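Progress report, Aim 2. The chain analyzed during this reporting quarter is listed below.
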Amino acid sequence: MKKILYIYKLLSTKNGKKRIAFFLPWLGISIGTMMLLLVDGIMSGMEKEIFTSLNKIEKEYQIESISNSNFNDILNYLNDKDYDYEVIYNRDVIISAQDHYMLVNMIANENLLLKDNIIIGAGISHELKVDIGDSVFIFSPLDIKFSSMKIPNAAYLVDSIYYTPVVDFDRKNIFVNFSSIKDLINSDKKILINEPLSKLELAEIKNQFTGINISFWKDNYLELVSAIKLEKIMYSVFAYMLILLSCLGNFTISNFIITNKLREISILNILGFVKSSIKSTISLIMVFFTLLSSVFGVFIFNVLLWTKAIDPLISILFPHNLFYNFFIDISIANIIIILVLNTVTVYLSSLIAINTIKKNEPINIIRGNQV
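Predicted structure tokens for the chain:
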């Protein structure tokens, strides 16, 4: 223990005073750790909020590319298996109110008790300037009757307005009862399975009915998942650059200090301390300060999070009217990964500086014949 304290004093003091330059890289590592936690927490929190919101809307699996010939056979099969399912009908339509128009995805469901009413999203309500009880019209240009050049349309009263801003869901989707458009608009059928299925059960359905496509609901958002992961990597690389710069500073300062303290280190060697022991002690000090600064960064970040001192910065970077109202999500696994990355990076950067010790014989250093 005395040896460790003596070597620590050699590295951290100059003329009996604390060497400020020795501690600056560790401050940089603390700040870099907080930035990594912030980036990871924001992106993980945003991803969690997005898919938690979507999970309330989307069903487990959807069966598409259903032909009219096997539609009833699939329903009979699902009934025999006692699966929980529902049938929906999709069509791209135009919704209008007064002089405002929007292209949206109409989702018709036989189970919706709406009659001549419609459910629209908050984004659509804002764009069309309508509220509950107001009238809207649906037009389906894809079903235009070329004999008369008339576009099928239907009038509805707004029954309710839902709010799901995730991936503009409430700006793209409206919900009606299937009976209100059955004789007016052609639509694509989908069967939604509302319960988790095993791989064996999914394979059995695919083998039973050729030509159909079964997808898990998250498969429709693979581009979104990839975009979030790419952003997370980019911001994490930027944050990790600060740690790398701190490691470079640590290497430069350590190399300078060790070079200037070679005489004292050589005296330790002559007094019986082997070079490998001295080198391992310096490495141990570097690793200790890395862990200490990293843990300090984690602690300060959690204090800022707990006191909500970081909320104004989050509001500036991610305004609620443009992004999702999410909570920063920090996992223990990510904290451990950051600690390991910091430790390994600092240890590798300090090896070169430490190797200066073995390049010269102690007696030559003491005599001033340093190579």
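The chain has eleven helices and eleven strands. Residues 362-369 have pLDDT under 50 and may be disordered. These observations will guide the mutagenesis work planned for the next reporting period.
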